[in-house]
Amino acid sequence: MTEEDIQLAFVPAYMALFFLMSFSNLRKAFMERLITSKDYISVISKPIVIGVITVFILEGTRYLPLIFNGDIIGIGSGQVKDDGHLSRFANWFLTCIIAPSNEEFITRFLFYDGVCLLLLSMIAPLPREKVKTFNAAQMVLYKMLNLFNIMIEIFVQKIFQRSSKLGTCIYVIVASTVFSILHKPDITNFHLYFLGGVVDWFFFLRYGLIASFLSHATFNASSDMVHKIWIGMLGINQH
């Protein structure tokens, strides 16, 4: 991890602060999205428990090629690696606090609530009382604008207000794919990030942003320990 990597890690945090300070609607949505369930025990406990289970299962899939005399599946080239330049605490803070915070804010909150607010802001008010005075060209423009508004309203209703489970699932799949690509995986380890992202999306939509952060942070915090457990269980010599 270079000094440039550390500086880049804080860029999304500055961006998040800028957005929240600049846009009151986004700030309000952020506060409302932090916790969306009154079952506070589940908000805290379930992401942690499921996060550990998820990392244990996904980490285990890295060793499946050994059955066929293959090599252990590596991690994405875009994932931050501990190269010994940072203290243990600094590395933990970056991977378990800063990185999950940045990624949850951008790939969950902004991708969901941020996009929703952006789309709603694009709905233009239509001067219905003046329609009778429109000429042919103005009427065509009016109908096109009306269609555009309707399409946005339908998209927001089905995806962000979750009137369509299929629509929401498709959106989650697309967003999880983007989340995975950010870690620069290959075809062998893409599932590590994609499935982890889907789990985080579940907690985000069910319990809120804090829950998805806890799930993500737990995954990052326990991955090294789980890796050592699998190594020990399989009797693999790392030297």
Describe this structure in words.
With 239 residues, this protein is mainly alpha-helical. It has a domain at 122-182. Helices cover 72% and strands 0% of the residues. It contains eight helices and no strands. It has helices at 3-22, 24-34, 40-61, 88-121, 136-160, 165-181, 190-206, 209-234. Helix 7 packs antiparallel against helix 8. It starts with a helix and ends in a 5-residue tail after the last helix. The relative contact order is 0.17.
Proportion in helices: over 70%
Strand content: under 5%
Summed up, the helix count is 8
- Write down the Rg: 22 Å
Biggest sheet: strands, sense, closure?
none
Give the H and E element order.
HHHHHHHH
Q: How many E-type strands?
A: 0
The parts where pLDDT drops under 50 for at least 5 residues are: none
Structural class by SSE content = mainly alpha
Overall average pLDDT: 85
Terminal-residue CA separation: 22 Å
